[in-house]
Design brief:
Strand order of the largest sheet of chain B: 1-3-8-7-6
Radius of gyration of chain A: 13 Å
Shape of chain A: globular
Oligomer: heterodimer
Order of helices and strands of chain B: EEEEEEEEEE
Helix content of chain B: under 10%
Shape of chain B: globular
Number of strands of chain B: 10
Helix content of chain A: under 10%
Largest sheet of chain A: 7 strands, mixed
Number of helices of chain A: 0
Largest sheet of chain B: 5 strands, antiparallel
Order of helices and strands of chain A: EEEEEEEEEEE
Radius of gyration of chain B: 13 Å
Strand content of chain A: over 45%
Number of helices of chain B: 0
Structural class of chain B: mainly beta
Distance between the termini of chain A: 37 Å
Largest interface: A-B, 27 and 27 residues
Chain lengths: 115, 111
Amino acid sequence: GAGVSQSPSNKVTEKGKDVELRCDPISGHTALYWYRQSLGQGLEFLIYFQGNSAPDKSGLPSDRFSAERTGGSVSTLTIQRTQQEDSAVYLCASSLGDGGLYEQYFGPGTRLTVT
Amino acid sequence: KQEVTQIPAALSVPEGENLVLNCSFTDSAIYNLQWFRQDPGKGLTSLLLIQSSQREQTSGRLNASLDKSSGRSTLYIAASQPGDSATYLCAPGGSQGNLIFGKGTKLSVKP
């Protein structure tokens, strides 16, 4: 079946612009996670959704970052007033449920470059 | 705050060798631990998931063990092949499933 998909695959934006990154989870997966992979920083957790609610936003690096999920499916990560330090690969993952019982399946990522 | 260390950072072996990748974590209150591989420029591929109540999981030539109380996990790869070349990531999971990643072990298997 179809895996997790993300769009766009690459995004180049000017400093100060807003960007939206999209994630389509595997059908039927109720939990959705966003991570960021930066050079030298490794992979870091950003935010998690169970259904449409986000119980854990602790990983968002600043208030310029926000995310939403609609219909228990598609999620959008928005970065306002982008800065050069936002340049990274943004990865989305989904799983059948939360509570740590299920494997997470990752999408191919969106490579964001802020110039 | 959970911290994950993976040793070695890089490993180069000849084809056919058995090898062990090590992962240690500072907070033993985990719900699971997942091992992934990442190929250059690609996303993550899940290899094995070990629940906190389990001691090991096996899939083909891969075997992962978990010693939760001592904060350690190992990934054993039998009869390594050039196609196994990738970065291997260890990630213990919290109660809501959010994963904390190590920096990975970059494996190169020479033909």
